[in-house]
């Protein structure tokens, strides 16, 4: 396997005590390697440490401990060279309100020492449906359009790594669709994408690997498919011919539950477990004289796994 494009080792962040406020540790010794060209989703509730970790990698926040290597460069000792390889789309819609779209995106490119490339900037703005707004002042744009400008600014210097910090928060459906098309296109061109998101269905669809963070601790990192296999569960719902008031004692081994006022018998099982398969359960249901009109099975989603790990929805 090739060397990671981003390596985070033992990175922690503790904010010193101030006044009556005690010291706060936002990150606890995080170790994480990001593969070149992958889409990595970092999931966690508010206050989990996602933005703190991104801010440290991007040089906005100084870590208390640890090292960060960006494409072989020490992100602290060789900050300028490392930062040129990174694009960041922050949560906040802070932009140069009186600048035009074209001017601010072009200026962002020059900030990173890139030579002028009008053709690239034009294509970038077209890809984000901003070309028609290129002469508009940013203060005149809608929130969705301002978000597009932030993405354009982050991509203006052609970075190798792109951070998307809650990019879908508060944006319209059209922008979300355009943005994920662009994410796939960037990944196809070799750009490494690291995103945090509350839209777990997008992470489930887009990500190659998933990390779960809570309380400043990285709980796990795994390939999405492997994570779903190891932690995922299946649900079997039987739509009953007649509702039940209680679960028959004969089914206690499988611990099913009654849903929808007793009209549905639900069995949740681990696909890797022994003796917990659907055939044995259905035989027991038949032996108990329970009739059902329909059945449906479903896999647990990434959100279900997240809730099981963290105890709350992101």
From TrEMBL:
Entry annotated with the keyword ATP-binding: yes
Keyword set, alphabetical order: ATP-binding, Nucleotide-binding, Transport
Pfam families: ABC_tran (PF00005)
Single GO term (MF): ATP binding
Annotated ABC transporter domain residues: 6-240
Protein name: ABC transporter ATP-binding protein
Species: Sphingomonas cynarae
């Amino acid at each position: 396997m090739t060397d990671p494009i981003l390596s985070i080792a033992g990175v922690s962040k503790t904010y010193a005590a101030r006044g009556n406020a005690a010291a706060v540790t936002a990150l606890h010794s995080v170790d994480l390697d990001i593969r070149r060209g992958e889409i990595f989703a970092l999931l966690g509730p508010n206050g989990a440490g996602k933005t703190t970790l991104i801010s440290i990698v991007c040089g906005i926040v100084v870590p208390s401990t640890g090292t960060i290597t960006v494409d072989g460069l020490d992100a602290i000792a060789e900050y300028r060279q490392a930062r040129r390889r990174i694009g960041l789309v922050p949560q906040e819609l802070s932009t140069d309100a009186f600048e035009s779209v074209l001017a601010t995106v072009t200026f962002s490119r020059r900030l990173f020492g890139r030579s002028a490339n009008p053709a690239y900037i034009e294509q970038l703005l077209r890809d984000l449906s901003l070309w028609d707004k290129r002469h508009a002042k940013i203060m005149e744009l809608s929130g969705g359009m301002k978000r597009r400008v932030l993405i354009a600014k982050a991509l203006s210097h052609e970075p190798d790594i792109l951070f998307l910090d809650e990019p879908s928060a508060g944006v319209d459906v059209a922008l979300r669709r355009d943005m994920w098309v662009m994410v796939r296109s960037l990944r196809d061109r070799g750009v490494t994408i690291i995103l945090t998101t509350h839209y777990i269905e997008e992470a489930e669809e887009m990500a190659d690997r998933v990390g779960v963070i809570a309380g400043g601790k990285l709980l796990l990192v795994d390939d999405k498919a492997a994570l779903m296999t190891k932690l995922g569960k299946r649900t079997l719902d039987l739509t009953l011919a007649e509702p039940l008031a209680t679960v028959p004692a004969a089914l206690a081994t499988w611990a099913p539950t009654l849903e929808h006022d007793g009209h549905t018998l639900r069995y949740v099982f681990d696909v890797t477990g022994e003796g917990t398969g659907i055939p044995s359960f259905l035989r027991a249901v038949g032996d108990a004289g329970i009739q059902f009109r329909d059945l449906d099975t479903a896999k647990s989603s990434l959100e279900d796994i997240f809730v099981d790990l963290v105890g709350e929805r992101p």
